[in-house]
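Field reference: sequence -> structure
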Amino acid sequence: MGSLDQILVYPLQQLPFFLITIVIAFTVHEFAHAYFANKFGDPTARLLGRMTLNPAVHFDLFGIILLLVAGFGWARPVPVNRDNFSRPRLMGVIVSAAGPISNLLLGILGSLIYAILIRTGAINSITNDHLLQAVYWFFGMFIQFNFFLFLFNLIPLPPLDGYRIVEDIAPRPIRGRLQQYEQWTVFIFLLIIFIPSLSAYTIDPLQNWASQIGNDFIRLFLKLFGYKL
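Structure field:
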């Protein structure tokens, strides 16, 4: 048990809540891509069965295992054929942005529910210490992870959504140059992820910002509900 705790990013007792969080966050993220691609005329994801909220369809086993042991992973990316869009660049931007925005909305929703639990006194009414700890763990992870995914996926490096957004917005000459050096920017992305001295100045700040955004939304909702902080 102790050895597993050393391998995993989260302690074993917190692992179920993290798994629930990534199941929801990744599934909704990929579904959002598929939904808007289909809405704009590209049925590729739908025909492949990817326009669904079934987590099993979107999960990549190796990506999830790596997320648990290294803190970085992925779901199966939704295939999108921009040639089917009537306005490929504009609709491409919306489809790419749909994933991160879905995580932003999940983070806001989690903050809202947590604020409601505080405002109504539901949390204070929990007398079981284990259940209370579980509530803290789940909402803490759910809120921070979704805000983190929102920020992280907007990084303009492949294979992230932020890169696809920049690629669609950029003028044709710049877009061609981006594609020319795409393999090297992927390498830069991997260095940032897996070299601690680099991730300390890139990924770690995103974690801190995600936590701060979550706290700010909780405080905002509590103020709107008339709760004195």
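Note: Residues 2-224 form one domain.
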